[in-house]
Design brief:
electron transport, mainly alpha, heme, transmembrane, 5 helices, 3 helical TM bundles of succinate and fumarate reductases, 138 residues, Succ_DH_anchor, tricarboxylic acid cycle
Length: 138
């Protein structure tokens, strides 16, 4: 026999929230999706990076500066740095969240991971911009 009474349980969630079912964190698969997207974007960016570095192998300093100063090359290098550092940050965050069980060290490790990724990214971006804009600004 079916129970046709109305559901009388009190819930703070809206009907939309109940339907979406984003889980305990409230973020759903956003973290997973961004990590996969950066992985996919890293493929052509790293291939381009390797080709650029291979092209610089036998060149003089002036030729290397001229190659890196080209706007398309600088943009590819900047995109590679942004994608790789973000992918690195997300990957390490997954490892930290899975294997560090105490709340205090976990929070400290995630914060340190974020700072490390930002420092590495900013240092790389500074180097690329300094080399690529060096001829213009001097």
């Amino acid at each position: 026999m079916a129970d046709n009474r109305a559901d009388t349980r009190v819930s703070m969630r809206t009907p939309l929230a109940r339907v979406k079912g984003l889980g305990a964190s409230g973020h759903g698969v956003e973290h997973w999706w961004i990590h996969r997207m950066t992985a996919v974007s890293n493929i052509p960016l790293i291939i381009s990076f390797v080709i650029i570095i291979a092209a610089l192998a036998g060149s003089s300093y002036e030729e290397a500066i001229a190659i890196i100063s080209h706007p398309l090359i600088a943009i590819i290098l900047i995109l590679a740095v942004l994608s790789v550092t973000n992918h690195m940050r997300l990957g390490m965050q997954i490892v930290i969240e899975d294997y560090v069980h105490d709340k205090g060290p976990k929070i400290a490790a995630v914060i340190a991971n974020n700072f490390y990724a930002v420092i590495v990214g900013v240092a790389c971006l500074y180097a690329i911009l300094k080399v690529s804009l060096g001829r213009i600004l001097v």
